[in-house]
Design goal:
This protein is of the alpha+beta class. Among the domains are: about 100 residues, PH-domain like (Roll), CATH 2.30.29; about 180 residues, no CATH class; about 90 residues, no CATH class. About 65% of the residues lie in helices and about 5% in strands. About 35% of the residues are buried.
Length: about 800
């Protein structure tokens, strides 16, 4: 017994009457003690696990179809099929089944399908009535034949018997000869009867009858019979469509006649199922399950035969990428591939894997790159469909290709950039193609489906590539449509909203909304790559220009982008937002919206509510100090009052902590630090407030997060020590600069994850609001420091400075006092 002879695929029929592939393995028939009988066993070829264990039941009806298929039902709604690689293997297992059931292996069906309700009647029937007697095939008997065919459909036994009778007597061919006679005589009544007869025979659901009806010599007459539906005033012209309108295009001549015949047959049978036959009612839906299977297995066979013919596929690829190929020919080649990929969806996973690997090896991706950039809309659309099959199958394969390609060619012609440009240049007013391409891009840049192996991480490599080579192409329309606004705001601080330039063209707005959706996805999934990009390009400011668009959906997209950024609760982002005064466009949009209770209103309020609930201190302080006057009139929600309350609570907490400093910190040395912290933080943040008044962060300011907040604690200590050594000698005269240094080092801890910045900004900026408390506090601190002024110089040179500094950073009791 050779392995290939027993190699099978196991299929089960799902609820949608589609065959699901359960895997490939090797079949055997053995006695299974547990099941008390001979059984069919299929073990998976990949790991030897049991795919199928089915007892050969003496009463189960097994059907043999197309020489390599055995189909049967295990339970009322559980159909199984074994598809053999070789006919010899199928015959061998069929003999075993027939042996168990005591049947002659020449039969195609081992049992009559017995309905339980009819079992008793069937037992009483005399042996002589084994087959149904068919009326002679004559014109005047057509009505009788039609009545017989329609009457048996409700009974499984009678359907089986009628099928056997039709098969044995070659009856279908005789009926089709009568059809030609009726058509020549224009015998409408006879043609109507023939429609009922042929439709009824299709509903018998028998593969053996289908093979006769769908053979080359019969199929067009079958289609002809189905044109004469009695319910229609005029017959349909299906044959005319199939012979004249539908053209079989051979992009490369197919030499294999069997393959050609299969392709023709599959197209026509699919046409009968989809176009000619009416949608089956609930009672008839199972009548055509065998027809669905017939088409399904035909498609599997076509793909397999084409895939094995490597010469054919190589020729197709060569012509597709050849510059000399004319446009019409190339359109046909691309459409062929699109259909080929659609057919491949019927393959089982391992075979589909091999199919796409074959295409990749032959160069499908470089070929797509060429055709996706063409002017012909049809070609581009078909190429996009093929690309979507490839991305769905293996995003990693596409990513690997574009990264290799980046080493050899310019950014402009990279496959991903071609895809982005197609998305940007979609001419459809509804941007149907752009939406599809955006979905594919999202799949490609989704870290969830990126592989991490021992020696290389696809995620970091691909995202580095994407942000270096492709991101500028994606954001170009966004930056172009918001650029003038930026210039105006540079010239006029706090420029009026009417100066902003917004895309009022619906199609452009749709496109920008798509781009923003993708960028919002990046904010959620790409962490530092997108953070660097937003900071360097000042991207959020540009996006918020779109809050002024007359298209509310676009304003909401811009707001959603900002909401995702704030949702990360990342202090780098929070500092960027407060320094750039980026809440201003959002608050302007809320105020301009007036009293309208709409999605924009709700979304803006939800943004502020999130900041309140999550207690993001730095943003709360910024909003209350800069915008509370404009927002206090909004009383239909408690959000803004709640923010003010949080702000005041935090301010009180800071005051209490600063008041408790002198009593707890006894050392003169620490007293000096507490004083510098307070005075100089105020000074630093006062400077910050001046900066915040500016609409655009100058380039120097923009780089502050990276420069002023070192990544590691060691760097922070080096910076601190260097500054201290500068200041040592004249410290008493330069307390402000000492404090300035302290404040910056303090912020370094914020960059490392502490929340000190939040509270620090609150502490510093509360001073004007609570002058009484702070002035008395300042006085007491100043007095205490003055009293010990003489000892300050000596204290700076302590040899254990570094240890003490570390202690300040890490001590759980001291850190909140200084920083939180």
């Amino acid at each position: 017994m050779s392995d290939t002879r027993r190699r099978v695929k196991v299929y089960t029929l799902n609820e949608d009457r589609q065959w699901d592939d359960r895997g490939t393995g090797h079949v055997s028939s053995t006695y299974v003690e547990r099941l008390k009988g001979m059984s069919l066993l299929v073990r998976a070829e990949s790991d030897g696990s049991l795919l199928l264990e089915s007892k050969i039941n003496p009463n189960t009806a097994y059907q043999k179809q197309q020489d390599t298929l055995i189909v049967w039902s295990e339970a009322e709604n559980y159909d199984l099929a074994l598809s053999f690689q070789e006919k010899a293997g199928c015959d061998e297992i069929w003999e075993k089944i027939c042996q168990v059931q005591g049947k002659d292996p020449s039969v195609e069906v081992t049992q009559d399908l017995i309905d339980e309700s009819e079992e008793e009647r069937f037992e009483e029937m005399p042996e002589t009535s084994h087959l149904i007697d068919l009326p002679t095939c004559e014109l005047n008997k057509l009505e009788e034949i039609a009545d017989l065919v329609t009457s048996v459909l409700s009974s499984p036994i009678r359907r089986e018997k009628l099928a056997l009778a039709l098969e044995n007597e070659g009856y279908i061919k005789k009926l089709l000869q009568l059809f030609q006679v009726c058509e020549n005589l224009e015998n409408t009544e006879g043609l109507h009867h023939l429609y009922e007869i042929i439709r009824g025979i299709l509903f018998l659901n028998k593969a053996t009858l289908f093979e006769v009806m769908f053979s080359d010599e019969c199929i067009m007459d079958v289609v002809g019979c189905l044109e004469y539906d009695p319910a229609l005033a005029q017959p349909k012209r299906h044959r005319e469509f199939l012979t004249k309108t539908a053209k079989f295009k051979e992009v490369i001549p197919i030499t294999d006649s069997e393959l050609r015949q299969k392709i023709h047959q599959t197209y026509r049978v699919q046409y009968i199922q989809d176009i000619i036959l009416p949608t089956p009612s609930v009672f008839e839906e199972n009548f055509l399950s065998t027809l669905t299977s017939f088409i399904f297995f035909n498609k599997v066979e076509i793909v397999s035969m084409l895939q094995e013919d490597e010469k054919f596929l190589s020729e197709v690829f060569a012509q597709l990428t050849d510059e000399a190929t004319d446009d019409d020919k190339r359109r046909e080649l691309v459409n062929f591939f699109k259909e080929f990929c659609a057919f491949s969806q019927t393959l089982q996973p391992q075979n589909r894997d091999a199919f796409f690997k074959t295409l990749a090896k032959l160069g499908i991706l470089p070929a797509l790159e060429i055709v996706m950039g063409m002017d012909d809309l049809q070609v581009r659309s078909a190429a996009t469909d093929i690309f979507s099959y490839l991305v769905e199958f293996s995003p990693s394969m596409v990513r690997e290709f574009v990264m290799q390609e980046a080493q050899q060619s310019d950014d402009d012609i990279l496959l991903i950039n071609v895809v982005i440009e197609q998305m940007i240049c979609d001419t459809d007013p509804e941007l149907g193609g752009a939406v599809q391409l955006m979905g594919l891009l999202r799949t490609l840049i989704d870290p969830e489906n990126m592989l991490a192996t021992a020696n290389k991480t696809e995620k970091s490599e691909f995202l580095n590539f994407f942000y270096n080579h492709c991101m500028h192409v994606l954001t170009a329309p966004l930056l172009a449509n918001t650029s003038e606004d930026k210039c105006e705001k540079d010239e006029i601080v706090g420029a009026n909203k009417s100066n902003t330039v917004c895309p009022d063209n619906y199609q452009t707005a749709q496109l920008l909304a798509l781009i923003l959706e993708l960028l919002t996805f990046c904010v959620e999934h790409h962490t530092y790559h997108i953070k660097n990009y937003i900071m360097n390009k000042d991207l959020l400011r540009r996006v918020l220009v779109l809050m002024n668009s007359k298209h509310t959906f676009l304003a909401l997209c811009a707001l959603r982008f900002m909401r995702r950024i704030i949702g990360l609760k990342d202090e780098f982002y929070n500092r960027y937002i407060t320094k750039g005064n980026l809440f201003e466009p959002v608050i302007n949009a809320l105020l301009d919206n007036g009293t309208r209770y709409n999605l924009l209103n709700s979304a803006v309020i939800e943004l502020f509510e999130f900041i309140r609930v999550e207690d993001i201190k730095s943003l709360t302080a910024h909003i209350v100090e800069n915008f509370y006057k404009a927002l206090e009139s909004i009383e239909y929600v408690q959000t803004f009052k709640g923010l003010k309350t949080k702000y005041e609570q935090e301010k009180d907490r800071q005051n209490q902590k600063l008041n408790s400093v002198p009593s707890i910190l006894r050392s003169n040395r620490f007293r000096r630090d507490a004083r510098t912290l307070e005075e100089d933080e105020e000074m630093w943040f006062n400077e910050d407030e001046e900066e915040e008044g500016e609409a655009v962060v100058p380039p120097g300011e923009k780089s502050k997060p990276e420069d002023d907040f070192p990544d590691s604690y060691e760097k922070f200590m080096e910076t601190k020590k260097a500054k201290e050594s500068e200041d040592k000698e004249n410290l008493p005269k330069r307390t402000p600069s000492g404090g300035f240094k302290f404040t910056f080092s303090h912020s370094a801890s914020a960059a490392n994850g502490a929340n000190s910045t939040n509270s620090k900004s609150v502490a510093a900026q509360t001073t004007p609001a609570s002058s009484n408390g702070s002035s008395s506090k300042n006085t007491s601190l100043t007095t205490s420091v003055t009293a010990t002024k003489g000892s300050l110089v000596g204290l700076v040179d302590y040899p254990d400075d570094e240890e003490e500094e570390e202690e300040e950073e890490t001590s759980p009791r001291k850190r909140p006092r200084l920083g939180s």
